[in-house]
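INSTRUCTION: Work out how this chain folds

Fields: amino acid sequence; protein backbone structure tokens

Chain under study, with its fold:
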Amino acid sequence: MKKLILLLLTIIGVEGIAQEPEKAVASIQSSFQKEIKKLSRRTAMKKAFELIEAQREQTLKDHILLTEIPAPPFKEEVRAAQFAKMLEAAGADSVWMDKMGNVIALRKGKSRKKVVALDAHLDTVFPEGTNVRVQMRGDTLYAPGISDDTRGLAMVIRILSAMNEAAVQTEADILFIGTVGEEGLGDLRGVKYLFSQQGVKIDSWIAIDGGAIGRVNNQGLGSHRYEVTFKGPGGHSWGAFGLANPHHALGSAIHYFAKAADKFTADGLKTSYNVGVIAGGTSINSVPFESSMLVDMRSISPKRLDSMDVILKTAVRQALDAQNQMRRLGGELTVDIKKIGDRPSGELPETLPLIQRAMACTAFFGKRPRLTRGSTNSNTPISMNIPAVTIGRGGDGGNAHSLDEWWLDKEGHKATQLAMLLLVAESGYVK
């Protein structure tokens, strides 16, 4: 079973928090540093900070409870239902689930002229049947998904609860959200829906996803993903020798693609490519009737991703034609090129108020802010030039997307306090 799960994880695709090396941080504007310090001294904010620290054990209980509810790709509904109940208990004005399966809780602001969202994603990369029972080894929690991103969900709940209990009032409406489809082939379907015409109004977006305090993700790493499938009649390796062979075509396609892609990516803005999964065939002495591969391509430039699309499709067609010309009997091969992933890219300026506030909050907690590029739920609003940032879930953790994923509550409450401070600053504190 463990081997099967590991194979399925490979097929699903390990998204992780794919990042570029950190970028040098511009100086934080003094006006934002002063704003954050002043906000932190407000009586209601001090009380909320104290509540978050005092309720660490409850946050940990919420964390474990949600982790032990499986949320495999495209099947997040059970965890979503529990998360919705917990948001209701935390005092949301209203809680609902949209058509995509996202959980949304509204906390009304005073003026209601702006909407700020705080997000963590509900889904994990782990398929059905994965044992998600949390184990405590010493002071460390072990379980698939314990860090990515169930900790974020627990933080969202605690922030809502603390703000209500401390009577922290904001000018803007706040949406506390648990999104579906952030991982792998989920292709950001939850956040894409939120920012579509069918979604809700959102003016600023804050996502919590992976990493310790310090990360300020203001740049989206775009990706295109394809499933390429060659199909043929198939037959016996001896008796039907001469049939066009899907595996042979696939091998040629990989060769042509890698050769052209290597040349293209040698210069210009960073772009990557990878054939991650190959599948098909029934036995060693059978000409396969089908052969497929999953291809991942990433770039900081949308135009370069479009160019990589052309390179891939050209290589596949070249391989198809070559194999069909080699056949001695039977019908021709066909090929299906299916786009299965499209994560947008983009970059927001570090002078943007939300980014400045995120850096100022990070510095307030004694950490050096690092501007990063990643593949997270923030990709979508960033690509639309909507203020958005992804920040870390705090504590200490490792082995993300593995069966031995772990998380340690090493001052984990500080990341929750930081996220609340940023949320209130962006939402406008009512004096």
